[in-house]
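Supplementary Methods, section 5.1.

A reviewer requested that the exact input to the structure prediction be made available. We therefore reproduce it here, unchanged from the version used in the analyses.
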Amino acid sequence: MRNMADNTRTEPTAPDAEARQPHHGRALARAVESWVAGFRRKLSAGELGSFPVVLVLAAVWITFQVLNENFLSPRNLSNLSVDIVGTGLIAVGIVFVLLLGELDLSVGSISGLAAAVFAVLNVNHGVPEWLAVIIGVLAGTAAGTVQGFSYARTRVPAFVITLAGLLTWNGLMLYVLGTSGTVNLDENGLVAKLTTYYFTNDGAAYGLAGVSTGMVFLVSYQDRRRRKAVGMPHPSLQGIAVRTGVLAVIAFTAAYLLNRFQGLPLALLIFLVVVAGLDIVLRRTHYGRQVYALGGGVEAARRASLSVTRVQTTVLAVSGTMAAVGGLFLASRITSVSQSSGSGVLLLNAIAAAVIGGTSLFGGRGTTWSAVLGILIIQSIASGMAITDTPAAVQFIITGGVLFAAVVIDSLSRRSQEAHGRA
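The structure derived from this sequence is encoded token-by-token as follows.
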């Protein structure tokens, strides 16, 4: 009996064993377990978030790095960070339209028109660059506003309105360019420097990484406080810390790689600031909530006394504005504007970027960061194909396959949400 009692006393209980673990270790373990449990609940409910997109991006990078060790080199990643900006800005505008469950087919033509207006005013008529830039962007805003008002008033589907706009703005671009057809930009001018200027001081890239990480932590912490104050479910501090830590590793690794080439590109800085700013507009303002509400159902929004006409008009105006800004960055990349500006696969890539990144075609779900992830995938495929000397036809096939998979996942996710009463 004594031996049995002694044996019993020497066996630690589960609470004792847990108590022996370091406090921080237990907290981290609970945070990970909580995150995994929450992630499983979201998967079962069809709320996949950006998880599939991140997996695809990681697979693309690993594949091309295996095929060519220069793919993840500082030089190639720096070039990639600039290449995504022009089309990425256009895709950000398309996210706004997709949130309504609609589609804007005119963004390619608007981007070309804005670039043409800028080039002709600045190069041919001597208008100061800063003023020509403003007029070019306003041209895109005006085009988007006209389309948005027409869509809101006539209730004709937006893709029909913008299809007419595609032809109209393309014709206007050709008229603005005139018989010359091509206008070369000043390689030392303001617009040209948008994609050629780099902050060579290492502190710029590391500073951006630090500020971004800190802002994410503060926003997450404030959200947690607000939710906790009203008794809503809220993430743990440990969970917030883990997510912020992962972001910090990614951000500072990217900063390190950029500094190993030429430093932080001005184009990338502008892109991230615009995306973050519009994300705040969408997710933390009354206007943004109205956009999401319209995506959930126009009639329900009307009955809730929302200004449907105003929101629909401004959404297309935002899309036109972002297309114009993106067009200027695309012109900056090649320092010229021609009759082919805004054509080709630009429209398809911009729409594909928004959809691949996770913005739903059915409306009501998506963020501006969706466009960033989507254009990263598309441009990474293009960059990898160029490095490995793969035919362009294969690039289209792969991109098309990724887009098809994204649409299927979106459809299945929506069905799962409907089954759980969340759609």
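Residues 282 and 288 are 4 Å apart (CA to CA). These observations are discussed further in the main text.
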